[in-house]
Amino acid sequence: MTTLNTSTGAQYARILGTGSYRGSRVVTNEEMCTMIDSTPEWIEQRTGIRERRWATEGETPLSMSAQACRNAMEMAGVRPEQIGAIILSTVSHHHPSPSLADYLARELGCPNPAAFDISAACAGFCYGVALADSLIRAGQAGDDGLVLVVGVERLSDMININDRGTAFIFGDGAGAAVVGPSQTPGISPTVWGSKPENVETIEIENWLSGADHDTGYPFITMDGRTVFKWALAEVTGHATRTIEQAGISPEELDIFLPHQANNRITDALVRHLHLPENVTVCRDIAEMGNTSASSIPIALDRMIREGRATSGQTALLIGYGAGLTYAGQIIVIP
């Protein structure tokens, strides 16, 4: 019987640096209400959003993700040629092939990384962190064991301005993290999965539908009530399991950083998790809106750069959204 070689890598992995880029156009609730039938107060009360960031013409998913990655690599102190893999989560790359990760590798000057896109929407960054952790510990992340995990979205192109239930929610931006080897545990086991029976709850129309719209893009559709009920009923349990599998208690958490979908959902998660008052809860949605795959890394980078998250602290990340996918892990702040 033939015996094959297998590979092994570092015992542990951790996030070494973060970066982000926010769409430069600030769209306030007041401006939003010139486009839809609503009020600024109603939008903020229902979601926590006061303004959102939209990309301008030159701010593409590629340009935004490239700048986020450069910022992350600078923080981590690594060079493009050291990157062994790029994992990019997006629903905003409008070419079936090649992946946006491939274009990003060329833009950054990474000579030969493994590069691929994933589509897990709002859970995408946490999916990417799980994959990066596994690649590094399996010895499949290049000579230096370094992986770029990226979330990028330009959702303003896919907003149906006539849908007053969703038009005010979404924003544009990119977030990135360099994940690499560590001598101590820096990423907990990931709790992830989906609820396929509700796969149609949040969708982007097929591309043929875009021909019927002035924008030329397919629209995002969402049954917000169903998503809200699911998040309250099930995401709390997934977050609890994430803490348990990390082998810590809620009292040992420093930061709670959920996907920035809705402040009312975040409030409910905090209550049901019985998080202590000293845990810092991220509410970046107030200025960004919902940026799907990029919401967690954008918010994480902001917290680090503003000093609200400091090296060595623990943070619970949990993403959830389209496909009713979810993923959570606890990380150590770089």
TrEMBL record:
<keyword id="KW-0963">Cytoplasm</keyword>
<keyword id="KW-0275">Fatty acid biosynthesis</keyword>
<feature type="domain" description="Beta-ketoacyl-[acyl-carrier-protein] synthase III N-terminal">
    <location>
        <begin position="116"/>
        <end position="195"/>
    </location>
</feature>
<dbReference type="InterPro" id="IPR016039">
    <property type="entry name" value="Thiolase-like"/>
</dbReference>
<comment type="similarity">
    <text>Belongs to the thiolase-like superfamily. FabH family.</text>
</comment>
<keyword id="KW-0808">Transferase</keyword>
<dbReference type="GO" id="GO:0006633">
    <property type="term" value="P:fatty acid biosynthetic process"/>
</dbReference>
<keyword id="KW-0012">Acyltransferase</keyword>
<dbReference type="InterPro" id="IPR013751">
    <property type="entry name" value="ACP_syn_III_N"/>
</dbReference>
<keyword id="KW-0444">Lipid biosynthesis</keyword>
<feature type="domain" description="Beta-ketoacyl-[acyl-carrier-protein] synthase III C-terminal">
    <location>
        <begin position="243"/>
        <end position="331"/>
    </location>
</feature>
<dbReference type="Pfam" id="PF08541">
    <property type="entry name" value="ACP_syn_III_C"/>
</dbReference>
<protein>
    <submittedName>
        <fullName>Beta-ketoacyl-[acyl-carrier-protein] synthase III/beta-ketoacyl-[acyl-carrier-protein] synthase I</fullName>
        <ecNumber>2.3.1.180</ecNumber>
        <ecNumber>2.3.1.41</ecNumber>
    </submittedName>
</protein>
<dbReference type="Pfam" id="PF08545">
    <property type="entry name" value="ACP_syn_III"/>
</dbReference>
<keyword id="KW-0443">Lipid metabolism</keyword>
<keyword id="KW-0276">Fatty acid metabolism</keyword>
<dbReference type="GO" id="GO:0033818">
    <property type="term" value="F:beta-ketoacyl-acyl-carrier-protein synthase III activity"/>
</dbReference>
<dbReference type="GO" id="GO:0004315">
    <property type="term" value="F:3-oxoacyl-[acyl-carrier-protein] synthase activity"/>
</dbReference>
<dbReference type="GO" id="GO:0044550">
    <property type="term" value="P:secondary metabolite biosynthetic process"/>
</dbReference>
<comment type="pathway">
    <text>Lipid metabolism.</text>
</comment>
<dbReference type="InterPro" id="IPR013747">
    <property type="entry name" value="ACP_syn_III_C"/>
</dbReference>
<dbReference type="InterPro" id="IPR004655">
    <property type="entry name" value="FabH"/>
</dbReference>
